[in-house]
Amino acid sequence: MRLVADANVYLAVALNEPERQGIIEVTRGRTLTSPEALPFEIGNALSALVRRGRLSLQEAQSAWRACSAITVELRSVDVNAALELTAKHGIYAYDAYYLHCAASLRSPLLTLDQRLFRVAVAVGVKVMEVKR
Fold first, then answer.
1. Which pLDDT tens digit goes with each residue over 21-48?
2. Nearest-angstrom CA–CA distance, 95 and 87
3. Using CA atoms, how far apart are residues 101 and 95, in angstroms rounded to an integer?
4. What residues form DSSP beta bridges with 109?
């Protein structure tokens, strides 16, 4: 079964966050899919953590290697359709890419972002929950 996962899922695994084990359990045996913007969003998040002093450059690079080791199928998205989602629901484009990807593939979405979770439910996208 295919599962669309957003960047915070990959980062939680790579950074050994409390949700890590739950993510591993939910994703075991599933094909992970994400929008093709995923590597850029992960890079942006890691650079922000370095800039804020929450990670060293070496820790960010290690997290990047860990994220890069996760097998994921990257998909293109319809940016115009994503822009409609951003306008209608007041979300960022990155979040709309995940919603569009999940909706177009008719696949569940895995996210740790509560706002994205709520919008996904509102637009009829099934959302997988992670236990801590």
1. 999 999 999 999 999 999 999 999 999 9
2. 12
3. 10
4. 4, 127
Residue 116, domain extent = 2-128
Statement: residue 130 has pLDDT above 80: yes
CA dihedral 4, 31, 68, 14 (to 10 degrees): 70
Neighbour count for residue 71 (Cβ, 10 Å): 6
Residue 123 burial (CB < 10 Å; 0-12/13-18/19+)?
Answer: middle
Question: pTM of the prediction?
Answer: 0.94
What is the residue type of 27? T
pLDDT tens per residue, range 107-116: 999 999 999 9
**Percentage, residues of the chain above pLDDT 90:** 96
Both tokens assigned to 119: 């919008």
**H or E segment to which residue 2 belongs:** strand 2-5
Rounded CA separation 109/129 (Å)? 9
Number of structural domains in the chain: 1
Q: Which amino acid is at 62?
A: S
| Domain containing residue 24: CATH number | 3.40.50.1010
